[in-house]
Each structure stands twice: as structure tokens, then as C-alpha cells.
Amino acid sequence: MSIEIKNVYKTFGSFEALSNINLKITHGELVALLGPSGSGKTTLLRIIAGLESPDRGEVIFHDENQIPSQVKNGDVGFVFQHYALFRHMNIFENVAFGLKVRKKNVRPSKAEIEERVYKLLKLVQLDNFQKRYPSELSGGQRQRVALARALAIEPKFLLLDEPFGALDAKVRKELRTWLRRLHDEIHITSVFVTHDQEEALEVSDSIVILRSGKIEQIGSPDEVYNKPKSPFVFNFLGDVNLFHGRIQEGKAIIGNVDVDSPEHTGVSDTSAVAYVRPYDVEIVRIKDQGIAAEIQYIHSTGRNVRVELKRIDTGTLIESVLDQETYKSLNLLPGETVFLRIKKAKVYVDDFSI
Amino acid sequence: MNRYSPNFTKWIFIGLVYFFAFIILILPILIVFQEAFAKGISGYLESLQEPDTISAFLLTLKVAAIAVPINTLFGFVAAFTITRFQFPGKNFILTIIDSPFAVSPVIAGLIFLLIFGRQGWMGSFMEQWDIKVVFNTPGLIIATMFITLPFVARELIPLMQSQGKEEEEAGILLGASFFQTLKKIIIPNVKWGLLYGIILCNARAMGEFGAVSVLSGHIRGQTNTLPLQIEVLYNEYNSVQAFTAASLLVFLSLLTLVVKIILEKNIHRK
Question: Residues of A39-53 as b/e, b for ≥16 C-beta within 10 angstroms?
Fold first, then answer.
């Protein structure tokens, strides 16, 4: 099943939740809708599910052979953020629900339903839990029941709303690798909503980044991470340092250093901002080869060392991440003055330039 | 002994609770039975056979049997509508549902008298079609319905609000029809709250005095419910019969309380 979203608009009162959304989700893809809260990602998911109707625009479905297809209730697998398990039904009844409510002529026999439910409980590693009630399970187990329940109806596509949002860090990591493996096994078109960029980058085939109801960028994890189209995307996908400077003939000049910015070769003398990831800020001891900065704090966090610095010329705070070896060889101490070099930067022309 | 509640304070508080419960709750009930049995068991049984008391008892059951189901249905529909849909005037409805709690029952009775009475707004219309509301059973039912309207809705609104609509949405997306969702998800999720609301509503319906008193006309054996019959008998200084009738009402209340205790146990188990 492929999903095409065409010119979708949605407002709640005076709040514009979605504005002119156009998106194609191809068959068998695992897509992440990523954005900060209030960006409209859950609204978009609910519109795809048919739980909300768009003010304008439409959602069109095609089957594997590109033939337009109707989607009814009972075709959509939806996993709610807070699981929405039926509290008065046990796990077996929860998973079997979608099959039991079918009309007589399309309902599987009792034995078939049992077989399918036990197979799914095995798939989500919850065999022998069928008699338990949702309140007796942990968050991670409930989440997997919700997934089994959604898969029981053999949905045409699977929608997940912040599927791991309410779980603790370790369970979250386990479940997302597990989801990725599951998707590789059953290859069902899936869309999931998340505000966790790490989750989106790790699990999905393609990421849709939303900001205030508009699509900011669509692309593979590699594309959005390495070629962010806007400062917002760059910022949202990880920690970042901002260096203000000027662009001259394909180079961004910041203080007394310059960085290559090949996409701006035609631009001459414009103010610009360079976005630099902490691990692209290099610390050196050689004077006059970088931007002078004073070390303020050093946090050793396992494999990496995070150094907080203050630029001597402008007073801006800079964060640098280095590995343990480099850190040891440099022998850094708080209060020292060192020099910063920029290994790689993404340069955007300043919005306020004339 | 823990630091927060030293034994001394603890026992003073427990003593106070028992003292007030006994003086205000238990003693009056005991006195009802003492008075009812003032002329022995034979006197009590004789009073029970008083035809007007029997008809008042039956009328009370009849009024409750009609008013409670209607209010249950209304309460459920209102709670569902208020917690699931956005519509203009929602806050107004929420406020107005509570008004029977705020308005004195006597005033409520008078309002209905003004509407349905012979000189009332609908008086000539009612006379033309020979419908008798005032001083008749329908009037008693309407008054009781007004007084007990909020109970079920008030019980269900916070419950449905806190449960949210995600389970219903999950049911619909899994292919359930609205009636399947209603039967298998919505009602089972609120069933204890619903029953609790019905019990409170029923207790109030059987005990209602003020509004019913205005609309009844006190026709013995015809429009007197148990509370009204008790008053009539008492005013005639017929205290054994009055307290016998009162004991019937107490039995009905005790029955209600027993059901409530059983339900509460179930609520806590869930």
C-alpha cells in the first residue's frame, strides 16, 4: 500500500496545525514523521488513519500494483502513544478484538483466530501472557500487545504515534531495533511519529521533518543529517554551534579562520552563519591557527569528552566533543586558553543580510 | 507508633468519628425501628397491612422504576456527548445539569405546577387532551426526574473524561461498528461508575419529598408516595403507622447501601 498526501490543510480553531502538506509514502517503506511538539506530526498521522478529516486536500491510497484502493476501518493498524489497550479485556481478547468484530461472512473461525493470536503473541515475545490484563503488564509489554493487536487484522499499513515515547531509555532502544527487524520481516508500509531525532535516524528508511505544520525536508536519514536544507533541520538533528561570519568566494570567514562553503561560490561578501556540530570543532594548542577560546568545563562521558569553551573575542559559548585519546594527548585543563578549528560546517546566508 | 499520628491523637479522632456517626446516623435509624415496634411485632405487621401504606410503597417503586431508567439513559448520553464532542453551549449544558442540586425541590415542584397546572402555561392544552399531570402519577415522575437528573451524568462525566477516547478510536480503527464499540468498550469501561450513579439516583428518587409534595396533592392511596404517606400519618399522630412506613423506606435505603458496598468492593478490585 502506498500513501499519497495531497495539499492537506488542517486548522483547530485559529491554530493552523497543517498547511499545504504534500507527501508520498511508497509501498513497504518505514517513514518517520519527525518534529518538535506542536509541529503537526500527530495530526498528520491521524489524518492518514482517518481519525481526523483534513479541511482541504486528500489522502489517496494505492495498492502494490499502483491500483487506487479504498481504505476502511479494519484495514488500518494504529498504535497509540499510550497504547489504548482495552482495560477490561485480557491480552488474548485485546489481540483478537479486530477479528472478532468482523461480520460473520469474513470472520475467521474460532480456531483460526486462536491460532493467529498465539502466533502474534509469539512474534511480540509475549507467549503465555494471554490471560493477563493490561494493568498487569509493564510499559514495554503493553506497547508490544498494542502492536500485536494492530497487526492481527493484517492491516494494509501500520501507523504508530510516538510508539516509544512513554518508555524508559533502555526499553526504548530495544524496542526500536526490534521494530526495525520486524519491519524487515513483514515489509508493511509503516509511518511513525517521533520527536526523538536519534530514533528517527536509526529506525526509518525516510524521514519527514515537520515544523509548525509545514514540511521542512524529506529524505533518507543520511540525506537529512548530512545535507540539511535549513538551519532548523540542522539544529533539530543534533547539537550545534553557531559561528557568525562573512562569505567570500566560496569560503566562510569566521574570526581568523575560514571554512570551505562550495555552495556559496557565487556569493560575495555577505554575512552568514556557520552551523558546526560539536565533533567538528577541533581543539589545538598552536597559536594563531584558530579562534582563541577559554576552557570552562570538561565533562568526561564515557567514550567521549565534552568540552565547554568561551570565545575570547565574542564571548559566545562553544561546545566541542573529542575522543578520550585526543583529550589525553592535549592534556586540557579548565581555565586554559586554546584555539579552535572548524573541520566541517554548513553555512547559511544570514536572513538579515542586505 | 509512627511519628505522624501518635496513638493519643489517633484515638481521639476515631472517637469523634464514631460519636458523630452514632448521634447523627445510627441513632435516628434505631429510633425509627423502636417507634415502629412500639406496639410489638403484631402492631408492626398490622400497620404494614394498611392499604394506603401499601399503595404508597408500590407508587414509590413505580415512580423510581420509570424515572431512574430515563435518567440513566439521559445521564449516559449526556456524559458521552459532553466528553466526546465539541459543540456550542457545552459549558452551559454542564452548568445546567447541576441546577437540580442548586434549586430547592419545593421551588422545582412549584415550577412544574405553574407549567402543567390548570392555570399553567400548558393547562388548557392538557385539559383539551385530557392529560392529567398535576396531582397524578406523571407529575410525580416528572418531579422525581428533575431532582435526580444530575446523578448518573455527574458520576460518568469525570470518569469518561479521564479515560479518554483512545480506546474507542482503537476499537473503531480495528473495524468495530459504533454499536460494537458501545457494547464492548464504552459500557464495560464505565459500568461500575454507571451502576454507582444509578444507585445514588435511585436512593434519591425513592426518598424525594419536596418537589413531589407540591405536585402530589396528597390523595391518600392514590398520589402519596412513601415519604408523603409518612408525613400524613405522622400529622395524624398515628406514630406506629408512620414509623412502620418509615421503616420500609429505611429497608429500601439499606438494600441500596448493601448493593453499593458490593459495587465498591468491585471498583477497588478492578
Answer: bbbbbbbbbbbbbbe
CB-based contact B189 A76, cutoff 8 Å:
no
A160-216 pLDDT tens trace: 999 887 778 888 888 888 888 888 888 899 999 998 888 899 899 999 999 999 999
Instruction: Tell whether pTM > 0.90.
Output: no
User: How far A166 CA lies from chain B's nearest CA (Å)?
Assistant: 16
Q: In what order do the strands lie in the sheet with A76-79?
A: A76-79, A157-161, A190-194, A30-34, A206-211, A214-219
Residue whose C-alpha is closest to residue A78's, from B217, B77, B156, B176: B176
CA distance B140 to B217: 10
Between helix A139-152 and helix A91-100 the angle, nearest 10°, is 20
Q: How far apart are CA A215 and CA A336, in angstroms?
A: 44
What single-letter DSSP state applies at residue A264? Answer: G
Interface probe, candidates A88, A104, A151, chain B, greatest B C-beta count within 10 A: A88
Round to whole Å and give the CA distance between A352 and A54: 35
* Chain A residues lying within 8 Å of B171, measured CB to CB: 86, 97, 101
| Each residue's pLDDT tens digit, B64-92 | 999 999 999 999 999 999 999 989 999 99
- Domain range for B11: 1-36
The pLDDT score that the predictor gives to residue A89 is 94
The tally of domains found in chain B comes to 2
Regarding whether B94 and B5 lie in a shared domain, the answer is no
Q: Indicate the residue type of B80.
A: F
Q: Are residues B137 and B124 in the same domain?
A: yes
Q: What is the pLDDT of residues A102-123, one digit of tens each?
A: 999 999 999 999 999 999 999 8
Task: For residue range B165-188, list pLDDT tens digits in order.
Answer: 999 999 999 999 999 999 999 999
Beta-bridged to residue A161, according to DSSP, are: A193
Top residue of B84, B85, B174, B183 to mutate, by most chain A CBs within 10 Å, is B174
Statement to judge: residues B166 and B32 lie in one domain: no
**B124: DSSP letter:** H
d(CA A259, CA A95): 57
Inform me whether the pLDDT recorded for B50 exceeds 70. Answer: yes
Quick one: B47 and B123 in the same domain? Answer: yes
